[in-house]
Amino acid sequence: MATVIVDSERIRAKRILEILKQNVSVHDEDFATLVVARETSDPFRVLVVTIFSQSCTDIAALRAYRTLDRQVGVTPQSLSRTKTQDIAKAIRVAGLYKQKSRALKKLAQISLKHHSRTLDGILRYPVDQARFLLQELPNVGPKTADVLLSVWGRSTISVDTQVNRVSKRLGLAPQKAKYEEVRTALMHLYKPEDYHSIPLLFMAHGRKTCRSPRPRCSSCPDERLCPFIQKNLEHMSQRVAHASPRHVNQSIKRNS
Ligand code: SF4
Question: Which of 40, 63, 92, 255 has the most CB atoms in a 10 Å sphere around its CB?
């Protein structure tokens, strides 16, 4: 079913983004994929570090990438002639290293075997086709495909856990939406020129302020536009009306 978006939703979404742009600092060096993309124009290297960053911090992903580059080399040739367990040893810090080392080995073999489908070539396809082809590669799901495409300036939005959480709390995506629905909702609300900055801003906001267990709503620049905090305030005022003074104090301390 086609998504119907009324103008007021777009205006609200635009305002949310403007406020984040004014108040949230994005540092490229906090994102492993951007650090590597700044150093190289080789999509194979960028894909490798993006795979490392799956279920892993950016710091650890970058460390794994550097160690692998030093000990083995991050090229299809070097990875395909290295034993999987040696790759695993080099990338241990990235977590899920056995699975990731197997994926890397396969990725290297595919790259050498199918020259007609090099990453450079895939990245030039129309976005939908490129997303489909990328997801045929080992350990590449929609998020990894979107990260890579986005780095290459293609029109897409990657949705990681922070983007997912922030989008839902701010009422930009339905609460139960899955990956594709969140991505589509954001792409309908925003203009293509904002697609690249949205995940970076939402991730930075999610890491620092809109944290998973205890969001710092009192210091959030988007507080007034956030349905999540409004709902929480109503919930808290109901609890305060029925709680003892000791419990009220504990609750205030926990949320401050
Ligand atoms: S008000 Fe709270 S829940 Fe809403 S976006 Fe800000 S930090 Fe997140």
Answer: 63
